[in-house]
Amino acid sequence: MRSFLKPLLMVAAMAMGMTAVVPMPAWALVELNVNKGNVEPLPIAITDFQGGDALGAQISQIVTADLKRSGLFAPIDKSAFIEKISNPDAAPRFDDWKVINAQALVTGSVSKEADGRIRAQYRLWDTFAGQQMSGEQFFANDANQRRVAHIIADAIYERLTGEKGYFDTRVVFIDESGAKNARKKRLAIMDQDGANVRYLSDGRSIVLTPRFSPNRQEITYMSYESGQPRVYLLQIETGQRELVGNFPGMTFAPRFSPDGQKVIMSLLRDDGNSNIFAMDLRSRSTTRLTNSTAIDTSPSYSPDGSKVVFTSDRGGRAQIYVMGADGSGQTRISFGDGVYSTPVWSPRGDLIAFTKQTGGEFQIGVMKTDGSGERILSSGFQQEGPTWAPNGRVLMFFRDSNGGPKLVSVDLTGRNEQPIPTANFASDPAWSPLLE
Amino acid sequence: MGRIAALTRNPVMIALVAMLAIAGCASKKTPNSAADLGLNGAGAATPGSAQDFTVNIGDRIFFDTDSSSIRADAQTTLARQAQWLNQYKQYAIVVEGHADERGTREYNLALGARRAAAARDFLVSKGVASSRLKTISYGKERPVAVCDDISCWSQNRRAVTTLSGAGS
Description:
Chain B: It is found in: Cell outer membrane. By secondary structure, chain A is mainly beta. Chain A has three helices and 30 strands. Chain A has two domains: 156 residues, TolB, N-terminal domain (Rossmann fold, 3-Layer(aba) Sandwich); 261 residues, TolB, C-terminal domain (Neuraminidase, 6 Propeller). In chain A, helix 1 packs across helix 3. By secondary structure, chain B is an alpha+beta fold. Chain B has one domain: CATH 3.30.1330.60. Chain B is globular.
């Protein structure tokens, strides 16, 4: 397997000293308040980066697609542009951009360094204030061309919204092909926009529910390869795999703790019920967190590691519960009309995403961590399994229709739903963290 | 015992039970059934063979939605299975638990496991040695019927008793 993680280290960023950013009062600059209920997408003009032949246009295209899919930006069609940028380092003719209502403008260039690396730089301009908002340059090797564009999109997103971006991220998922009653399932990884798909398993065994470690180097998932379904760890770079724990029965529903030191999962009891255990990956010691004659599964840690949200049918049907990370204080938090499962704690800590079955539908929704404030973001005949973008603003899940599952993203307003392009059917997405 | 009442309210269930009564039911849709084994009729299987078990005894039972209770019709099937398994002790047995697609993945893995355990426990209660029995859950990963309505879902909510060969 080819490494894609190593080149991460070769991406370096530094602020461009060429234009001093004069401190200005915040109100003078264009900005998006993503906390408002109804955000009007910000009109933005993203010009082709100069140089690098087709690469300049490609970077601009990737940045444009990222910002557009976020739902927070309305990139202006290039055919409307009046000024043709010839020097991306010089101040543009702001009036030419104001007249087409571009509140923000992106210019940039790309070139090849003597050592073979690519250098990409961008400037973000506030057209109405008539000044530069930010400018940075990045270096990357050839294999990371798309990453540079995503990093630039993240920088623009962060400057304009005040929130961390999420475009320089990846998704692990299950690639599905073949007939429904003989599905071939392969572990796969791709960029968050569907590019650069790589397969991490050969499809001979059923594999399910992959999840990233906090450092993005490992995946924990479930596989039938040994006959009995069990939880495994996979080092993405080396392809090295290992069984997590040595339990007699099925282990499933794994997730990492926020510090990456533990895997929390369900273990099948001999009586057919399932309880939640945490295993310390260094000491290999296991801790039982639940001990009920019920199905306890789908555990997910809070980002500070102090709590765990999970599904249990101990009350009759599946509902969402929260407990301390030591198993203390197990409390039901979902009380709506329906069956709740697949809870996932937001990386911001403020919300829990879930799948709810009610009235013959499957819904993706969020609730506060005490169960209040439930909001349904998406409804459909068959859809499940939300995963959070690392900034806690967007969810991805899978929806089964037209013969198989496909990935879909939706933002927290529920109004911006986007298909994630995949070659085959795809399910069980898990979003990577951002690399700090 | 409200299960019988529930059953009679559900015409699909009745149809299914009726089909079950005929050995080798749903042969068009179930890959483990007589038709797929290349048999022309129920009587063709050698007594004590895996075919005999599948065709003449019935290798699977069905469950209500989100339930792992052994229904009355399933008890009849399992009792028949137990009698056969007690007669032909050379077989090791794996009970597969399955769920329909109308549940989320991890919950359905757990539900399939619970169904397999319920079927296993019933067989043990009828005298099958627990040392011969293993269970495995496939959740909703291995449907036998693939349409998008209740007639398929009810066939997929199942526990299948499979014979894993002589010895063990």
